[in-house]
Amino acid sequence: MKLVEGQQDSSFYESFSDLIFATMAIFVLLLIVFLVQVNAQTVKAVNTEQLRVEAAAQTAELEETREQMMQVEEQNSELQDELDKSEQEANALKESLKVRPLELVVVMDVSGSMTTQMDVLRQALRQLTLLLPSLSDDIKIGIVVYQSKIKHFPENQNQLQRILQAEDDNGASFRSVTDWMAKWLTPASRSNDSASVRRLRQYSQVSKLSPSSVNIIAGVKRGISLFTKVPPARMRQVFLLIGDVGPFEGKGRVEVISPEESREAQVIQQTIRDWAVQREQRGVIALRVRTQNREQPLEPNTDAFFKGVASAAGENGKYTEDWENVLVEIVAALLERKEFTP
Asked: Are residues 288 and 238 in contact, defined by beta-carbon separation less than 8 angstroms?
């Protein structure tokens, strides 16, 4: 009997021990599950906060980008407004120029010393003749050539030539002027006499007109006489004098000008002054051409003469030696805007 009771006690303890072990196992399992859940919640919370921060950063970036785009659009709108305004002003200027009559007279030395520059000047005047109709619907040009040995003015210099758009007259006015320039403004031959000078001599011999020396004084007076005497208030008139020695042609190595030559220079300057000061819509360009590789004892006198021609017109005068860009100077003078004087 005692043996049987000992077996029963052993089974109880074993059962109790198993119960305790199972309980602990369940507890540990539950603890592990709990810890896993807590860790998952923590990770989830961390990820959520990170996502929220990233989302906020992206939102801020998008807002900044949107603001930048709005600024760019605003700037583009301002630029477009400025472009539209500039285009309107340009169109207004173009229209105002189109109804503004323009007159240009070029008085040019065609002596042998001008041979190098003559071709460039002729090409510039040809380009100018193409350009002028786009500046005004009423544009006229006159070209006077002078040389101390010539007795008469060449043909087609008694009045200004109106230049029309090529489509308006099939290019007839352009051809008329350019043909004249090709005939009278041509480079010199080996004999150091320009072709235009030879034609001038031939013209003077066959025309049988009364002698009158075509020197610079006569050339300037003839050029001034071509302008409209009582121009409309809106008309712009520009006088261009081109030469390399002024009234001292053919003086060689003489270093002192005579009283007569001094008076000639004064007469020319006074003639231009009397014409230019009558109204503000008149401009004068004095183009002093320097002859390379040629000693000119009277250089200071010539400089003073051409500068005096420009200053005779006051603020409307311009002195230049840049004969290669004479086209720019002419266009600038024609387009100069001043208050119209009735």
From this structure: no
Structure tokens at 62: 């998008």
pLDDT at 77 over 90: no
Gyration radius (Cα) of the chain, Å: 47
Please state, in angstroms and rounded to a whole number, the distance separating the CA atoms of residues 13 and 15: 5
Interval 185-196: pLDDT, tens: 765 443 445 555
Is the pTM higher than 0.70? The answer reads: no
Residue 32 CA: distances (Å) to CA of 41, 42, 270: 14, 15, 117
Please choose, from the candidates 120, 211, 225, the residue with its C-alpha nearest in 3D space to the C-alpha of residue 201: 211
DSSP annotation of 295:
-
Which pair of tokens denotes residue 174?
Answer: 């352009």
What CA–CA distance (Å, rounded) separates 162 from 169?
11
Which residues make Cβ contacts (< 8 Å) with residue 228, sequence separation at least 6?
103, 235, 237
Q: Are 244 and 109 contacting, i.e. CB atoms less than 8 angstroms apart?
A: yes
Report how far residue 48's alpha carbon sits from residue 16's, in angstroms, rounded to the nearest whole number: 47
- Residue 265: HSE in the Cβ half-sphere, 13 Å Cα cutoff: 21
